[in-house]
Amino acid sequence: MIEAFQNINKAFESKVRLGIMAVLMVNEEADFNFLKEQLSLTDGNLASHTRALEELKYIECIKGFVGRKPRTVFRATKLGRDAFKSHIEALENFLKST
């Protein structure tokens, strides 16, 4: 049973980070406001969790402007996609083992 926990990634223990990655796995990219609305988060909460995922190189942040309005877009990196898939597989394996 302990082996089932080996591939569980601590970065995704937070439901917010799990949600961010889930959204980015099914969307090529998502902007800050879309993530905030979909996950019902405050600006600060989303910012701190996306920063943590950025530091792990699981997501990338692209900042730009649409007209004069700033726009922040996030994308999952290959490393992030692979880590998330491994995490989900580990959870599935754990559930099958119990």
UniProtKB/TrEMBL annotation:
Q: Which SUPFAM superfamilies match?
A: Winged helix' DNA-binding domain (SSF46785)
A Pfam family per the record? HTH_34
Positions of the Winged helix DNA-binding domain? 16-95
Could you tell me the superkingdom of the organism this chain comes from? Bacteria
Q: What is this protein called?
A: Transcriptional regulator
Instruction: Give the organism the record lists.
Output: Bacteroides faecis
